[in-house]
Amino acid sequence: MSEEKPINIDKIAKKIVQDPIMMQKLSDRVLELLREEIRVLKERCQGYGN
């Protein structure tokens, strides 16, 4: 079994914060994931008689 190299989140975050385009892409992706999560939760709730 090979060991995976740990991800240096701090280094990545510093790069993203300093680059407006990367920051926008990250924000867009987070928004997309949140919208998808809300959609899935609404579908689940409809199954409970709402």
Structure description:
- This protein is an all-alpha fold.
- The chain has one domain (11-46).
- 74% of the residues lie in helices and 0% in strands.
- It has two helices and no strands.
- The chain has helices spanning 9-18, 20-46.
- α1 packs across α2 (20-46).
Give keywords.
50 residues, mainly alpha, flat
Spell out the blueprint of helices and strands.
Blueprint: H1 9-18, H2 20-46
Helix pairs in contact: 1-2
Largest sheet: none
Could you give the count of β-strands? Answer: 0
- Total helical segments: 2
- Mean pLDDT comes to 90
- The fraction of residues assigned to DSSP E strands is under 5%
Gap from first CA to last CA: 48 Å
* Global geometry: flat
Q: Return the structural class.
A: mainly alpha
- For the record, the count of structural domains works out to 1
Helicity, in percent? Answer: over 70%
Topology order in helix (H) and strand (E) letters: HH
Oligomeric grouping of the chains = single chain
Roughly how many Å is the radius of gyration?
17 Å
Low-confidence stretches: none
